[in-house]
Amino acid sequence: MTELNIQEILKRLPHRYPFLLVDRVTEYERGVSLRAIKNVTMNEPHFQGHFPGFPVMPGVLIIEALAQAAAILAFISEDKYGENATVYFAGIDKARFRKPVTPGDQLELSATVSRRRAGMWQIETTARVAGFEVASALLMATLRERVQ
Are 11 and 82 in contact (CB under 8 A)? Predict the structure, then answer.
């Protein structure tokens, strides 16, 4: 079980502020699973309009955070980096939202490979806050060499 700091994450993902939604990888096992965190803060731009007076993290951004955690798992598992490969999002099933996520929360992201075949990854993902599940989804993705 190994950690990745923000510099290691930036080497693997093409995302940058304000769209980078993974702050730290707390542990991973190549080809199996990954755990990461996203610190939710009031200074994120989406909170200005979602919703004034009651800031709630948009569900699509929670799914994006889960997708980024899944992409990091694929990059680690294939020993690839963001400059030489890209993870393409291919589908989503069984997305569920159970509780609002608000500023001050820390999203605990988990991604577990459920199937990997012919270049396609199927990854079960879950987001938790303080141990309680707030969202989950089954994500499909493919990792491809980047064509210049």
Answer: yes
